[in-house]
Queue: 2 jobs
Job 1
Amino acid sequence: MAKKLFIKTYGCQMNVYDSARMADVLAPLGYGETDGPEDADMVILNTCHIREKAAEKVFSELGRLKAIKRRRHECGETMILAVAGCVAQAEGEEILRRAPFVDIVLGPQTYHRLPEMVARAARAGGAVLDTEFPLEAKFDFLPAPRVEGAAAFLSVQEGCDKFCSFCVVPYTRGAEYSRPAAAVLAEARALAAEGVVELTLLGQNVNAYHGEGADGEWTLARLIRELAEIDGIGRIRYTTSHPTDLDDELIAVHAEIDKVMPYLHLPVQSGADRILSAMNRRHDRAFYLRLVDKLKAARPDLALSSDFIVGFPGESDADFADTLDLARRVGFVQTYSFKYSPRPGTPAAAHETQVPEAVKDERLAALQALLNENTAAFNHASVGRVMAVLFDRPGRHPGQLVGRSPYMQPVHVEGVGHLINRVLPVRITRVHPNSLAAEPVGNERECA
Ligand code: 5AD
Ligand code: SF4
């Protein structure tokens, strides 16, 4: 009989990708996904450690799952409980100590071994811990990804060597690793053959990609050029980029290849040189602003999104004013902004001049008010524009489809329900709080 698997995913797109791949790995064992933990034979929490009391959230979720597991036991059923992802990597043994009913603790680099771990957990009746950084790359052991819809993630790079002083990623995900180009191209071709139109290349530091290619190391720019040759692939995105790895070759790709979407996530974190330096970001404000100019010169319709941290240790009112100023100048169309959260083991956490919580709250509110204005202005300026939208989901009403504009804005349109998973030109007609409304243009001519 089919077994039921429930995966709860926290955090970034890499975790979303990893969760899908864990489901792929477990499918041959008879596991199919279900919507909740109550009827699940196996539950995986795929955790994130980047901000806030991540570990505490996981332990309280585990408390709830413990009760469900006990109930299932009383009914003669079992539930395998696994904790994966970056909290698992960081906390390891501590999870098994505090939550001994957990069966498996695995890090982000070992999930290709899940079938073996499940068998070991069943056999031993005890817990399995696997948070190594193994020599073998998990990608070499994963089955072909299952495709759902016309937009897919493709992980090309993992880990980070940048060591920003606030960030846990270099510790939880490990050193930078780039998949060989041939493996990426093969996966992309397989996805295209299954109907994928849009690829989002993933990596913690994706533009540091330097995978082995047919003729030496390939850059991300080279990889994108080759991916753009694949029939059926109509749109390419990549995330997340570090400013110092965004070289002229990659900027040229934005100018030359229409399939590369005119939208780039380029975290800046702060607009103040003093703070950027304390963050070990390896670039200053002028460097970032120059990059933005170069990108816009290469692709005038390019829009940027970004990440910000407020209240980094030592951040003064003047530093924060620089951040507001930079945000105003660039006019980001989408942003993610956070209060600084000390991460155990990172250099900034030990800093003596932590910013009081109330100041962080104030600064976050001020920054978000400005950033939201920029996003709203961009959305309103979209009205009347014709955009190519990949419609990949049915909407709430019959015949309605929802998709993404080149700028990742959610767009919905009526009366073209049969054209799901296609890229259509539509005219934006209205701005809703969380989406844009559009109407088809011409007679449903497709873009790609
Ligand atoms: N505190 C607050 N925000 C953080 N980020 C990473 N680490 C921290 C931290 N310790 C944010 C950064 C990063 C995004 C993914 O999360 O802005 O770009
Ligand atoms: Fe973290 Fe900095 Fe690496 Fe991004 S570049 S993953 S913020 S260390």
Job 2
Amino acid sequence: MGLYLGLDCSTQSLKATVIDTDSGSVVHSSDINFGRDLPEYRCPGGFLESSDPLHVLTPPLLWAAALDMILGKLQNANIPVEKICGISGSGQQHGSVYLNAEFEQTLSGLDRNCTLEEQLKDCFSRETSPVWMDRSTSAECAELYSRFGNEISERTGSPPIERFTGPQIRKFYKEFPQKYAETLIIHLVSSFMCSLLIGHSAPIDFGDGAGMNLLDMQHGDWIPEIAEYTAPGLIKKLPPAVPSTRIAGKLAPYFEKYGLPAGIPVNVWSGDNPSSLIGCGAFNPGTAVISLGTSDTIFAAMSDYKTDPEGCGHVFGNPAGGFMSLSCFTNGSLAREKIKDRCQLSWDEFDKVVLQQTRPGNNNNMLLPHFVPESTPLRLSAQVKYQGSEAFCNGQGEKAELARAILESQVYSFKIHSEWLGRFDRIRITGGASDSAALTQIIADVFQCPVEKFAVSNSAGLGAAMRAAQACSEISFVELSNLFTAATKIEQPNAETKDIYADAVETYRNFEQSVTG
Ligand code: XUL
């Protein structure tokens, strides 16, 4: 037992969470915000601004620079960093990092008198990484589908998906064959960050590897024929795929400069969603998690391997073993913020008007809030549509109606697109918008099941720290979950809204289908 560090390299920030398994408490949390703390990279939202919404890229050197900064912050925090016994981490999923022959050599001799940024700058065969919001690979997805058909989805857990790493690699190979040839290894954000910590290339875990359209989910191996078609010679450029509980290596001597103990074990990193499954205590089937972050996701541990018949949802590896299902809604907090700004309300006022001035079902006023291209249902262009009263559709309705409409419409979409997830009898919510009392109540009522909240809001970072404790000291996930993920508040569903919402969900289903096809 002792202190364990979880790092979470998400879209907008790199966060550190330290847990103490003796006291069962989170003893430290801090973050480096990419826009605020590293403005020289010109990534205010964590990615380069571009006039083309389908291209979303981040310079990977930014993440390396943030690693030095967050560990510097940790060293100056009021905790005994020398007592940290193990480290793990999570990364935004799907993003890929392209490294040349210099990478391994540079990592093996990291000089503690220089920064990671200074030492790694010549190690990339591609200066920018496509991240999960990139949607520029429709042509490559179509090619992969026409070559392999449903086999891709059956074997890798998802059909070819624009943001997934395989189609992204294929596009890079097609557009820049020379740079692809110079690429010796391709990492995910998670395995790239883990590599920096251990001073050599780290494996990719089954949790995050599943988001690549390359991993055979049932056998835990890369699929040679899909890899070869994706890009010639790719299989040799991929790190090995391993279970999420594996130790990747020992902390590199470079990091002793931050007071961290020499050679402590580093667990393979995973994706932010698989890590969140652990941090929400939802690694056994029966509990679904709704994570309300930059994107909204709904996910759950699965009892059996099964894919989404609609082709929008995904199967990833569950870090505790087995599989998890996930549907991702890109327009999450972005759409809520757009409507909040239009209403000119603070978040507190927004919540208040919804709860005090409107009623469940909102007289069937609803909207399709695709302010940017959407993953679920898949839409490659932005489109916002309204349905309901004339005044509401003309933008002349009450602010309160519009405020309720965005929250309810998003939850209707969660309900419709989570039907394939299987049965669950409770929902745990996490992420920034889980503070909203109105949204919490709407989720409980639409799903007609209890909604639980818990103390730690960064569940991916907490999950990473719990994974470090499990992998490095063999503390069981059940024990860790009892210590760190107990519910602090439970919202019960209001049975009187059951029929109203059952009807509203059907109305929304028809509305969504009529617009998106
Ligand atoms: C999941 C997905 C996002 C990213 C960003 O498929 O694309 O949730 O992991 O956090």
